[in-house]
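Replying to the earlier thread about multi-chain prediction with a worked example.

Input:
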Amino acid sequence: MVIVKRTALWAGLMMLVLAFTAPALAFANTLESEAQNQETNIFAIGIFLAFALSTLGITWWSAKRTKSQAAFYTASGGISPIQNALAIAGDFMSAATLLGITGLMFFRGYDGYILSFGIIVGWAIMLMIIAERFRNLGRFTFVDVITYRLEGNSVRVLMALCSLVVIVFYLIGQMVGAGKLIQLLFGLDYLYSIITVSVLMVLYVTFGGMLATTWVQIIKAILLLCGGAFISFALFSKFGFSFNAMMEASVNIHPKGQALLEPGGWLGKSWLNVWTVGLTMCFGIMGLPHILMRFFTVKNAADARKSVAYATLIMSVFYIFILVIGLGSVAIIWGQAEFYDEAEKLAGGSNMVALHAAKALGGDLLLGFMSAVAFATILAVVAGLTLAASAAVAHDLYALVLKKGKPDPAKELRLSKIAVIVVGVLSVVLGLIFESQNIAVITAFALAIAASVNFPLLLLSMYWRGMTSRGAVIGGSLTFLFTIIIIILSDSIWVQVLGYDKAIFPYVYPTVFTMPTGFVLVWLFSILDKSQNSTTEKSRFDAQYLRSETGIGADEAAKH
Amino acid sequence: MTDLNQAHHLEIFKKLVKMRARMIWPLSIFLLLALAGNLYLMSSGASLGAKKISPDGAVTIALAYSVLLIFTGASIAGFYVWWANKKLDPLTEEVRREISALKGKE
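Result:
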């Protein structure tokens, strides 16, 4: 009863904040419409409100079905493969993808596409070597999988912290991006923007758990696919459905000319630059806790495999849309006065390309639709991140470490909801602190840790008998430190924050160095480990291997 | 439990492991090499990547390669899930049956 009362109290508080922010939206609209380049679009607000109301309805419906930890973390494994595929794809069809990659390609040309094809290759590989085994070995989080046969708490604490670091940095990137985007699209003040995002995300997750979080993502993924398909189709139709004609038109108008379609516009043909970005994209996704967690929302390994395969197909289609929008919109937007401000810069900045294309092709209605979808996209992604953070705290740290795997279920569930609210508050505070920082770097940091620490540990724990707890802890921590040191020495911190003249590490992503380091260090400290524990851990490998291949024992574990 | 610990020595389990491994590792390595090819076209091989695929168009080799790479990744994902549903799942079911029979004897 206490929980019910408390959650009701929180719900009341949240509603109050929401009620406070909604009029602010209208107020800011009248106040700032003159100051903003982007006039607030009535369709955008209408469509967004419809989205917010329907997703809150789903949350209310999900709340009745979310009474246990299994329901809260994984929707009790009751999501179908197609639904899960849309949700997984939705996590990648983010605002950063839709707006960021198209903007990058619009200005810098072909090189920006590396952010798309690296991910598709990564997903296809993840499907084959990770998805099924992962589903068979864990219950709620990726820490379950890595520590399946490992002894001791230190490895669980380390992996939970790595999860949290990745999630929090990813979340900061999303919040800052969200605040700026909503400010621009809806004319809402930055602070109110991030508060609105935070309140909605906390509502979805606390009450609806994984079920609501998944449905929010599914609805948004469908909306985004429809929007992307419509823009691409309309663009294509302008050039008689000839890709070549569209590219020629873009090349003719862009100051880069033919170089728009040639390599080198962004990464300068430097092999280290290209490889480090390519590897980060390909392997970073395999260490993202909020993505991996979705593999547990289906009933078994075969369904996890289907979800990942369908998700890969959906993303591939979407990335083709991205290519068409990124390069094709040059032909219809570049140099058109209505999309430029007085300083002859693209109105609203480089992230606005996809939205300008929407306006050019479908008027205010399509612009409104795409703006609302961009907002929805951020909400859906941050909700998934928040849920993963809550699982890391309540399941990995509290239930497994503090309570040695025997927690009081009611307490664990309550703690996970408190964690959600803490993350909600924290996201606003961090959003404010990082408001003027370069968010690309913050996200790069998250992906670099994921690719350099989480991914090697995950792969080795599944496939290599010799990995021991001590090897994982020492190797993992050293790689973590090494990655942070390299990031500090790179341009974004060393030059832009600390004010030195020249960066010691000249590339954005450290992955090309840190990922191999991760593998080598974990291997090295594992083979040096001659302890009693290490013998026990290695002896458990056969049973783990049997379970990872066949799923024997996994069904019972998931039912808990 | 002793039987379950010995289950990984079962012939049928070894067959399952082998069948999966023979599919996933070559395909994964192929995809990584294909990705490496694209990274090559963007860096050391950029002059090759910048060539047009046909003289009357604007599309470059690098761009066409990337689209093909996405298509390949999607096709392999589609192929693998088709193959695994058809071949791997029945065999896995058989392994599970055999192992539960082992447990039954105990």
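Chain B touches chain A through 52 residues (CB under 8 Å).

Feel free to reuse this layout for your own posts.
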